[in-house]
Amino acid sequence: MVRYLAWTGALVCLVLGLAFPWSKTPLIMGLCYAMASLGVAIMMRAGQVSFGHAVFAAISAYGVAFTAKAYPDTDGLLLLLVGMVCSGVAGGVIGLFVVRYRGIFFGMLNLALSMVVFSMLGKFYNLTGGTDGLRIQRPTLLGQALERSAFETALLVIALACSALLVWLVQRYFKSAAGEALASIKSNETRLEYLGLSAKRILWDGYVISAVLVGLSGALFVLVQGLVTPDIGSWFRSGEYVFITILGGSGHALGSFVGAVVFEAVKLFASAYMTGVWQLLLGVTLIIVILIAPEGIIGLIRAKAVTHTGDKP
After folding, report:
1. Helix axes 235-248, 255-273, angle to 10 degrees
2. Domain segments of the chain as ranges
3. Are 221 and 158 within 8 A, CB to CB?
C-alpha cells in the first residue's frame, strides 16, 4: 500500500505541475522540505533529534551560490552535486563532535552550531551578502539554456526523480545491517558495543548521510529561488524539519513526504483563512496526530494496511 501511495503521489505532483504552472515552485519547495526532513528522520531512527540540521541546507545553498558566482557557466546538475559535497564534508566534520553526545545534548549542540553559522552568514556582508543574501543566474541544465517555465518543469522532474530514488535508497538503508545497527542505538546502545560495533561510528555514518540529504534540499531550493539568504539555516527552519518528520513518522522513508504534504496543506490553508493564528492550527494538527498516531501518519497508514489487507508493513 505504501508503495502505491508513493507512485500515486509522484504522479499527482507531476500532473499538478504541468496543469497548473504556478504550482511548480511550491511543489519543488515542498519536495525540498521532504528531503530535508528525511535527513532528520535518519537521526530520529537512532533516537536523536537534531534542532540544527538546517545548517547543512545553508552550507549547501551558499556553496552552490559561491560556485555559480565564481564559475557562471557551471551546469545546474553539477551545482547540485557541489551542494551535496559541501554539506557532506560539513556533516563529516561536525559529526566528529556531535556523535559523542545523546539526547538533549545532541539536539542542543546541533542547534548551537547552526546558530553560529547562521550568525556568520548574516555578519559577513562582503562575502555572503548579509541578510540580503546572494542571487544566482539561472544555470543551464545538461548544457541547455532554458526559459523560466521550462527550467521549473525540469527542476520539478529532477526533484521528483531524486525523491523517488531517495525513498528507495533510505528504506533499503533502514532495512540493512547498518540501518538496524543505527536503530539499535535508540533501543540498546550498550549491547551494540558488546557486539564489537562502534556506536559513534554508526551514528557518524548516519549523520553524514542525513547531512547530504538536507544539503540536496538546500541546493534545489537555491536553484528554484535564484536567491539564498541566511534564513535557510535558521533554527526556525530546523524546527519545521523536525515538525514534518514527527508529523509524517520516521518508521518509513515515505513518512517525511507524507508529513511535508500535510504540513504545506495546513500551512497554506491556515495562512489564507486563519492569518493571525496559523501557527496554532499547525500545533493543534501535530498534537492530534501524536495522540491518534504516535508513529506518525505513515505509521497509521501501514497499520491500517496490515489490518485490512494483511500486507506487510
Report:
1. 120
2. 2-15+24-309
3. no
How far is 38 from 27, CA to CA, in rounded Å? 16
Cα–Cα distance for residue pair 191/70, rounded to 1 Å: 50
Cα–Cα distance for residue pair 114/239, rounded to 1 Å: 12
Whole-number pLDDT of residue 304: 67
75-114 burial by CB neighbour count: b if 16+ within 10 A, else e?
ebbebbebbbebbbbbbeebbeebbeebeeebbebbbebb
Between the CA of residue 34 and those of 17, 39, 244, what are the distances in Å? Answer: 17, 9, 8
**pLDDT tens digit sequence for 54-72:** 999 999 999 999 999 988 8
Banded model confidence at residue 209, pLDDT cuts 50, 70, 90 = very high
Packing angle of the helix pair 76-98, 103-123 (nearest 10 deg): 130
Dihedral through CA 259, CA 224, CA 5, CA 269, nearest 10? 50
Q: Count other C-beta atoms under 10 Å from residue 313's C-beta.
A: 14
- Note whether 140 and 76 are within 8 A (CB): yes
Q: What is the rounded CA–CA span in Å between residue 295 and residue 301?
A: 10
Residue 3 near residue 181 (C-beta atoms within 8 A): no
Provide φ and ψ at 143, rounded to 5°. 80, 0
Cell of 300: 497509521
